[in-house]
Amino acid sequence: MTVIQSDISASPLRRRRSSFAAHALLILVSAAFLTPFLWMISTSLKTIDAVMSEKLTFIPHPFAWTNYLRVLTHPSMHFLLFTRNTLIVASLSVVGNVMASALAAYAFARIRFKGRGILFALMLSTMMIPFPVVMVPLFTMFRWLGEHHLGQWLGTYKPLWVPYWFGTAFSIFLLRQFFVTVPDELSEAARLDGCGELGIFLRIILPMARPALAVVALFTFMASWTDFLGPLVYLQNEDQYTLTLGLQTFQSAHGGTDYNYLMAASVLVIMPVVALFFLTQKTFIQGIATTGMKG
User: Fold this and answer.
1) Where are the alpha helices (DSSP H) in the chain?
2) What pTM was estimated for this model as a whole?
3) Are 135 and 147 in contact (CB under 8 A)?
4) Which residues have C-beta within 8 Å of that of residue 96, sequence separation ≥ 6?
5) Which one, 80, 126, 190, 286, has least CB within 10 Å?
6) pLDDT digits (tens, 9 = 90+) for 37-51
7) Model confidence over 171-214: pLDDT tens digits?
8) Can you tell me the distance from the alpha carbon of 43 to that of 266, in angstroms, rounded to the nearest whole number?
């Protein structure tokens, strides 16, 4: 009896120790990932003398808040213009990818047709193809479209957002994994009420899939916002540049920009994505947690 009571009293203590060790490990890992980001913010608030000093200091002294103002007013960094261009591309990409990927994912998850498994596997295999591999064929295709009087493509934003309107493999996979968790009884009840596949998709599946759709929208926005190679290949005029291209132009301005100004510009570029994540954190975690629980 004494041994049993000792084991019972020791069990909560072991759980607390295990929980403490797990939290300590997570804190260390988080610190490793946060250190470069915090160092970037620290550098953005330093003077150039403090940045180039041999003495490494994490806390700026003095705080050079004017670095951000100088970046916003710098003639080589048209921040508001580049932000507008990036928002246009990112918004169109998000809308197109969410709509197209949801339709394709519903077909793979809820509609039985011959060859569904093979097509789904082929679609997933495209995730292993990096963009540089298809960059030249895509460039050739968009140039061909412009040469055959199908509208100008090169030098416009269309190559950056139109492909998203055909869906992406990862988004289709993510939504498909969520759709298969929806009980079939809901669809059968809707069919008995005379609802077709489109009605089931719009009235039943989509309202239940809001967390997963939010995850797809967030991933698409982040990918479009931080895309550098795509705008570098297709955009030709500086007035069309996105923030990533604008940051590259700012970096190379006048033979090289001071590190404190460059870090301040980098903070301004990534802060909208960070703010968006924190605003949608609850929905994002819910969408991830409820995806892939079945099938």
Assistant:
1) 2-44, 48-52, 66-72, 79-110, 116-125, 131-147, 158-161, 169-179, 184-192, 197-200, 206-208, 210-225, 229-234, 243-251, 259-279, 281-289
2) 0.83
3) no
4) 161, 162, 164, 165, 166
5) 80
6) 888 889 888 888 888
7) 999 999 888 888 888 888 888 888 888 888 888 888 888 888 98
8) 11
Phi and psi dihedrals of 170, rounded to 5? -65, -40
Classify residue 192 by burial, with Cβ atoms within 10 Å: 0-12, 13-18, 19+.
exposed
Longest dimension (CA), the chain: 89
Question: How many CB atoms are closer than 10 A to CB 237?
Answer: 8
DSSP helix/strand/coil, 263: helix
Residues 89, 94, 95, CA angle at the centre, nearest 5°? 105
